[in-house]
Amino acid sequence: MNPLYSFAGILASAVLHLVAPFNRKARLIIDGRRMTAERLCVLQKDRPVAWFHASSLGEFEQGRPLMEALRREHPEYQILLSFFSPSGYTVRHDYDGADVVVYLPSDRQPSVSRFLELAHPDLAIFIKYDFWPTMLYALSNRGIPTYLVSAIFRRDQLFFRPWGGWYLRLLSLFRHLFVQDEASKELLHEFGVEEVSVTGDTRFDRVFEIAEEAKDIPEASCLEGRVLVAGSTWPEDEEILLPYFNGAPQDFKLIIAPHEIHEEHLRSIETKLQRLSVRYSALQRGEQIGHYDCLIIDCFGLLSSIYRYGRYAYVGGGFGKSVHNTLEAAVYGIPVFFGPEIHKHREVRELCQHDAGFILHTESELSMLISRFDDPMEAQLLSERAKAYFATQRGATKTILSALFPKE
């Protein structure tokens, strides 16, 4: 282990505790970690444990098909699920596909050792990323097979920088890396990482499951007209969406599910709207959708099902660090729009290449795209292209599970 990193871990833990009184996420992490030991004691010593780690909710959804397939095919295993982020843990702390759900411990040697002693995993599976050096070295030293699934690598990442050699060595601590595309495999081979297989992205398997099991949401289905579903939006997205909606014809309706649903953000959206809106929580209390033109989703867990009620979809994040999950919308065969920041996502680039996903920069571009797909012929052709693309992407879950548990 790098001594400098060990010191940084101590410093990071101290900072987390210092900011906790003023930062809700920090408080949630600290309070959640205090319950970890008690939760891990539920695991039975005489049954093997498969540990899955997801940084946040998106990675959980990505790894979920693999967790559930493992439970079906190898019921002897107990499933341990950990999160780093409160946005994942608070939504899925009671996920019934796992025996135990916890926060990942701080990446300090005492915390890591205690975690592994209580969890006693027989294998560890990290979903997409979230590389914690102390934990990875501890897993390797204990001989616990550790895998990375649905990963994707880019040349601009720290691993491949001239000064990133120490970080690159972390990848050798995995027994095998299951990556999304050939470009990732070639890049890893170039830098001496050989235990790599191209298996695709388990998210495609997951979004098919979600689409097949989509919840009926009457509050969304009652919104009549040409409906745009805008998911995981940030203020930068709303600067384009809300002015367009305010000036759109009366038959154009909006369902918006902001990425952050704290009161300040919700009130900001309502203030900018010039057409009648209602919150989903109000409908739950008995309010009728009636004459409202905009439904604001002020809770988590519904977005993936709500996309099916849209004629078009907008996915937020593309004017910030990176666009959010486009597949949850695209699986329904509707046009999906987003901002320009897509370079981290292979599937978004491929949706664009298949003319099923569309980058926009301005309100006028949004207007042109909506006009284009108001044409029934254009909408039908897009639906066919999207379905053909998705059909080629399924199967990563089965391939990875077969590699983890080869049949004799």
UniProtKB/TrEMBL annotation:
Coiled coil: none annotated. Its EC number is 2.4.99.12. It is found in: Cell membrane. InterPro entries: Glycos_transf_N, Glycos_transf_N_sf, Kdotransferase. Pathway: Bacterial outer membrane biogenesis; LPS core biosynthesis. GO terms for biological process: lipid A biosynthetic process; lipopolysaccharide core region biosynthetic process. It catalyses: lipid IVA (E. coli) + CMP-3-deoxy-beta-D-manno-octulosonate = alpha-Kdo-(2->6)-lipid IVA (E. coli) + CMP + H(+). Keywords: Cell membrane, Lipopolysaccharide biosynthesis, Membrane, Transferase. Its main location: membrane. One of its GO terms (cellular component) is plasma membrane. It comes from the Bacteria. Pfam families: Glycos_transf_N. The active site is at E59. GO terms for molecular function: Kdo transferase activity. Residues 37-205 form the 3-deoxy-D-manno-octulosonic-acid transferase N-terminal domain. It is an enzyme of class 2 (transferase). Involved in lipopolysaccharide (LPS) biosynthesis. Catalyzes the transfer of 3-deoxy-D-manno-octulosonate (Kdo) residue(s) from CMP-Kdo to lipid IV(A), the tetraacyldisaccharide-1,4'-bisphosphate precursor of lipid A. Belongs to the glycosyltransferase group 1 family. PANTHER family: 3-DEOXY-D-MANNO-OCTULOSONIC ACID TRANSFERASE, MITOCHONDRIAL-RELATED, 3-DEOXY-MANNO-OCTULOSONATE CYTIDYLYLTRANSFERASE. This is 3-deoxy-D-manno-octulosonic acid transferase. It comes from Porphyromonas catoniae ATCC 51270.
